[in-house]
Design goal:
The protein is mainly α. It is built from 11 helices and 2 strands, in the order αββαααααααααα. The chain has 2 domains: about 1-65, no CATH class; about 80-290, no CATH class.
Length: about 290
């Protein structure tokens, strides 16, 4: 009861004349779990000490308890490993959500918004082809998406730096080299590009800006689900590299963690998504009936 209420971090219960010791702790609370790890280590050392003393009393060598000596050589020491693991979980979620949110305003305004204002048809009356106009709008939306994603990560970085100063939080350490940062940045930029193309196509197809905003909601849901899905998958099979959006999340997660998940294949898929979305958008603007919906 004391542990569940938070009064105590851990509790011990002895059974069978102290032979069995139950360690009770709240594994959903970080402080309790940390205390439990310390108590468990102390109890294991105490148990090993008792066993060694009993062997000595029997005239036996103490190394009988350890026929195999296991030496651990992790690639990263504790704080850095924890920080890198946390970063590999955060980046896919933040990148997918930010990439989906970033282009919403620009895509809605340059597509359905211009249809409502009646300013899109004069653009198609110029010497530029309709496909060229679509590509120009796509570039503008992508720029705004990249700015939004960059702002999102800058804000997250400032929160990380301010945490230990204002909230006495523990600062995690990361183990990422320049190559990892560059590869992750490319994947994040590709993710923003994919969502820019998808949302611009949706906006050009919508009757109004309000309708476009409603159609953007499923995109946000899919982005969020893909981000959290990538975090939840621990050992993704190879065919996951062909699952739209989820493959981007898995590629970012693997790159940060140092275990690449088919980054080249995922990048090619991302470019194919953009190409398909722009092809659909170009077909939409060639349909006069769709343009006059607004």
């Amino acid at each position: 009861a004391g542990v569940s209420s938070g009064e105590y971090g851990v509790a011990l219960r002895l059974r069978d004349a102290g032979v069995v010791v139950e360690l009770i702790y709240n594994n959903a609370e970080p402080r309790s779990a940390e205390l439990a790890a310390g108590v468990r280590s102390a109890l294991e050392q105490y148990s090993a000490g008792i066993a060694a003393r009993r062997l000595e009393e029997l005239g036996l060598a103490g190394d009988l308890l350890t026929p195999i000596v296991l030496e651990n050589h992790p690639l990263h020491y504790g704080p850095r490993a924890a920080g890198t693991l946390a970063l590999s979980f955060l980046v896919p979620v933040l990148a997918l959500i930010a990439a989906a949110i970033g282009p919403i305003a620009a895509a809605g305004d340059l597509g359905a918004g211009e249809k409502e204002r009646g300013t899109i048809e004069p653009l198609f009356g110029t010497c530029a082809s309709r496909a060229a106009v679509v590509v120009g709008k796509f570039v503008a939306v992508t720029v705004m998406a990249l700015i939004g994603v960059a702002s999102f990560f800058v804000g997250a970085g400032l929160a990380y730096l301010a945490g230990p100063v204002f909230y006495d939080a523990v600062r995690l350490e990361f183990s990422v080299d320049f190559q990892t940062v560059a590869a992750t940045a490319i994947l994040v930029a590709l993710t923003a590009t994919v969502f820019s193309a998808i949302e611009l196509t949706i906006s050009l197809s919508a009757r109004s800006a309000k309708a476009a905003q409603a159609f953007f909601l499923p995109v946000l849901i899919l982005a969020s689900a893909s981000g959290y899905g990538a975090v939840a998958v621990s050992d993704a099979p190879a065919w996951f590299a062909h699952v739209p959006l989820l493959n981007l999340g898995l590629a970012m997660k693997g790159t940060v963690a140092g275990v690449p998940f088919y980054p080249v294949l995922v990048a090619l898929w991302a470019l194919s998504y953009v190409t398909a979305a722009l092809a659909i958008a170009s077909a939409v603007v060639r349909n006069e009936a769709v343009l006059r919906r607004g």
